[in-house]
Amino acid sequence: MCTHSGERPFQCSDCGKSFYKQWRLKMHASTHQTPKTFTCDLCGKSFRKAVNLKVHQRVHTGERPYSCHECGKSFRQALNLKIHQRVHTGERPYSCRECGKSFTQQSSLNAHGRTGERPFACELCGKSFRQAGQLKIHRRVHTGERPFSCRECGKSFTQQSSLISHGRTHSTERPFYICDRCGKRYADQRNLKLHKCGFS
């Protein structure tokens, strides 16, 4: 996948800038066709749209008309305020199709997609990874190795993080949800509900 390999096969013939998707190149190419007719009186910078000039002029005036109701931070553009508010809401609408990681803005997702190569390839299935440790964990899918065992119940796992998560089910610090039919206990109420569905 181009976004994760860093490959950018679509190049602009006017300026040489390259893109990983053809539609992005087409959008970019249109910027070379429209003249910049709106010029800033203070610094001489030119823009293709009057609205872009208006936003730019706030650099000189210091005007920041868009304020966050949560923390009071202000912005020159409404879009920047919208992106900022995701810090408070926890919204991360841009997700990587390859690894599932999510981001507050498209540019962060784009940068994530370009982060390095995947030089560590599994010799059995061809799946590749950025780190040798990730490949080592992946190989256990093929070998069946589960080196991390729970002292309480003997259940084993391919990763230490999975064992740690599992260990919480034995912890007395967390509330347990107990099935009133068979006595089986769950650390997560959702899992208990799924379990109870088996009785109906």
From TrEMBL:
This is C2H2-type domain-containing protein. Residues 10-37, 38-65, 66-93, 94-119, 120-147, 148-175, 177-196 form the C2H2-type domain. GO terms for molecular function: DNA binding; zinc ion binding. PANTHER family: ODD-SKIPPED - RELATED, ZINC FINGER PROTEIN 208-LIKE. May be involved in transcriptional regulation. Belongs to the krueppel C2H2-type zinc-finger protein family. Gene3D superfamilies: Classic Zinc Finger. The keyword Zinc applies. It comes from the Eukaryota. GO terms for cellular component: nucleus. The keyword ATP-binding does not apply. It is found in: Nucleus. Keywords: DNA-binding, Metal-binding, Nucleus, Repeat, Transcription, Transcription regulation, Zinc, Zinc-finger. InterPro entries: C2H2-ZF_Transcription_Reg, Znf_C2H2_sf, Znf_C2H2_type.
